[in-house]
Design brief:
six-stranded mixed β-sheet
């Protein structure tokens, strides 16, 4: 093994090549020549003694050994960054980047504004906001914090519970004028619903009556969407009835654009949490953003603190 090839620079180059998928893209981002990037990878592979990447004319792919080595490189580089930051920030305000992933609708409607306020308070902290409804691999994507709705099964991450997000069944006055207003939950089977195609079980609605009795009603409609903002727009436009988080539609309820249906019935609340990569939880800027988000998210409509 040639330990001279095991430098942090080579590890950084390797990580960037993996994340960008092409040597040329990594070279542009790093400000290096492609020949230098190739040399770094070759030296790293020579040092560890196994191939880390498979190369084609279009992309690079990880070998089995390369996949494990990539995960370890991420941890090493983050620990080095954390140690460096703590030394630098001992006598100055926090600085550097935090990568935050968030479900798209919540990010657009509320979290972006929260980040503005956070950066007004900490102007030297850069926030990279990734909006997606996919359950991405935090470590692989280099994400520090993920804001998640729904049950969490990833026990490798640090979980910060915020509470539960309450929902209501809503529809527009225009829809009720055209289609009639359901008088009991069973009537919903005869009405148009706005269905979320990316949520399992959305073809049925589960309600709880005042006595806690569970009711299951099949629902369907002519419009299926895979984004919360599209569902919000469809509900406001009278395209159907549907369940909605209060943080998504409270302003429309206040304006009379939407109305709550069957207010005496409850929909199951959805857990809302932050996931933090354990190796990043102690970084000052990450910790500051986590604390700030927890405080601000609890102020949103329909969020009940657990």
């Amino acid at each position: 093994m040639d330990d001279q090839g095991l430098s942090l620079d080579r590890m950084r180059t390797f990580v960037r090549v993996v994340e960008r998928g092409r040597l040329s893209a990594a070279a542009r981002e790093l400000g290096l020549g492609q020949s230098t990037v190739t040399r770094h990878i070759n030296e790293l592979e020579a040092a560890v003694g196994v191939p880390l990447l498979g190369r084609t004319t279009r992309r690079v792919t990880l070998t089995e050994e390369g996949s494990r080595y990539y995960a370890n490189c991420l941890q090493i580089l983050r620990l080095v960054e954390q140690a460096t930051e703590e030394a630098r920030n001992a006598r100055r305000s926090p600085a550097g980047a935090v990568r935050l992933s968030c479900t798209a609708a919540l990010g657009v409607m509320h979290v972006t504004r929260m980040i503005f306020d956070f950066q007004d308070r900490y102007p030297e902290i850069r926030v990279d906001l990734n909006l997606t409804d996919e359950r991405i691999d935090l470590a692989r994507e280099g994400i520090d914090i993920a804001l998640r709705l729904g049950p969490i099964a990833d026990d490798a991450m640090k979980l910060v519970s915020i509470g539960k997000s309450h929902r209501r069944l809503v529809g527009s006055p225009d829809y009720f004028r055209r289609k009639g207003r359901p008088t009991r939950p069973a009537d919903l089977a005869q009405h148009d619903s706005v269905v979320m195609s990316n949520i399992a079980g959305s073809d049925q609605l589960i309600l709880f009556d005042p006595d806690g009795m569970r009711l299951v009603v099949p629902v369907s409609g002519m419009l299926r969407v895979d984004h919360g903002l599209a569902a919000r727009a469809a509900l406001a436009a009278g395209r159907g009835i549907g369940p909605a988080h209060l943080w998504l539609v409270q302003d429309l309820l206040d304006a009379g654009t939407l109305e709550v249906l069957f207010d005496e019935y409850d929909l199951e609340a959805v857990p809302i949490s932050l996931l933090v990569v354990p190796e990043r939880a102690g970084v000052a800027r990450v910790r500051l953003l986590v604390d700030f988000l927890v405080k601000e998210l609890k102020k949103l409509p329909g969020i009940a603190v657990s």
